[in-house]
Amino acid sequence: MLIVIYGADRFFGQEAAPEPSAEVTRNASPGLDGIIASDVPADQFRDGDCLQGFTGPLEPSTVVTCETAHNAQLIGTFSIEGDAFPGPEAILAQSEDLCKSVPLDPASPLDTGWSYHFSRPSEATWQTGDRAVACFLALNEGTVRVSMLPAETSALNT
C-alpha cells in the first residue's frame, strides 16, 4: 500500500497566526444533503470530521456526515511537546509519525488513491504557543461515503 505524505506549515514563512474565526454553527440534525456546516475554517475542524471540497489542511471545507460524499477526513489532532522550536525537519518528522500512528478502519477503502495531509507549527507560530498538528486523509480524486476511522472513533464526531 503506497500513501503519499504531504505537509503544510501552519502559516508559511514568518507570518503570525491569524485571529480565530467566528464560531460556525453546526447542524446537529443534518438533512438529506448531509451538510453539518458549510465553509468551516480549518481551526474549527473536529477529529473525525468528514470534509467535502477539501483542498488543503489550512483551507475551509464543508463538514458533512461521513455517509455523504466527501473527499477528506480529519483523522486526528496532536500537540507537540517542548519549549524550544525543534526545527522544521524535526517538526515534519514528528508530524508524519503522529499522522501515521492513527489507527484506520481496516474495512475502509484505503489504497494508493489516498494521501496524508497535515498542518504543523512553523517557527513563527511556535513562538505564539502553537503546538498543534492536524492529520487529514484525502482522496487524490473522487469521493467516498464512509469514515476512514474505526466505528468507535467515528462515533465521537456525532
Kindly describe this structure.
The protein has 158 residues and is α+β, with helices and mostly antiparallel strands. It has 3 helices and 7 strands; from the N terminus they run E-E-E-E-E-H-E-H-E-H. The protein has a 7-stranded mixed β-sheet with strand order 1-6-7-5-3-4-2, covered by helices on one side. It is globular.
Secondary-structure element order, N to C: EEEEEHEHEH
Shape: globular
Total helices: the number is 3
> Order of strands in the sheet with the most strands?
1-6-7-5-3-4-2
If you average the pLDDT, what whole number results? Answer: 87
Characteristic key phrases:
alpha+beta; seven-stranded mixed β-sheet; 7 strands; globular
List the helices and strands and how they pair.
Elements lengths: L3 E6 L25 E6 L9 E3 L8 E4 L7 E8 L8 H13 L13 E7 L2 H5 L4 E8 L11 H4 L4
Parallel strand pairs: 1-6
Antiparallel strand pairs: 2-4, 3-4, 3-5, 5-7, 6-7
